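INFO batch 0412 | record 1 of 1 | parsing
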Amino acid sequence: MLGRFVMASEEDVWVSRAKEGDQAAFEAIVQRYERQIYSFVYRMMGDADDAYDLTQDCFVRAYKSLSSTNHELNVSAWLHRIASNACLDVLRRRQRIRWLPWDPVKHDGMLEAHASDDPERLAVARETSSSVQDVLNRMSPRNRLALVLREYEGLSCEEIGDIMGLSRSAVKSVLFRGREEFRKLYLDAQGEVA
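INFO prediction complete | emitting tokens
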């Protein structure tokens, strides 16, 4: 708990200094969240090039709008909201939503290494990930966004509410409907009765 307060106050200092024009402070924010935002955008877009471009766009938008933020800024939620809006804008323009599984071979090098990586486990994880992504492909965008933020990004209901512009109780409702939609679609895909 204490580590979270120290981290938050450190981020508050970065934000304050970045608002005053300190580029090194904004770079510290970028370094802290770049991998997390890239991972989120990749899950939304399903393409590494799109994820790279939109991640960069997210931080450019963040830099430009930093001066209009309040002093109690939740940096993670703010960046996720900017990223989700950028993704949804692109997806609306394309009039389609595509989800591809996270490719551990291609993308895990960007994240911290796992001590227990082994080929069998990796193969099972890929198969499971592919099934999950197939179900996510068929879900409504709103339910999918809420589930990705909760299950892949590990965000709280309050943080998801900040990103999606919903109250905490509305987030819980969307998550409930999303989980029910996921369960039904998953069972249908497996040939089981819901």
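INFO post-check: The CA atoms of residues 144 and 157 lie 15 Å apart.
INFO record closed
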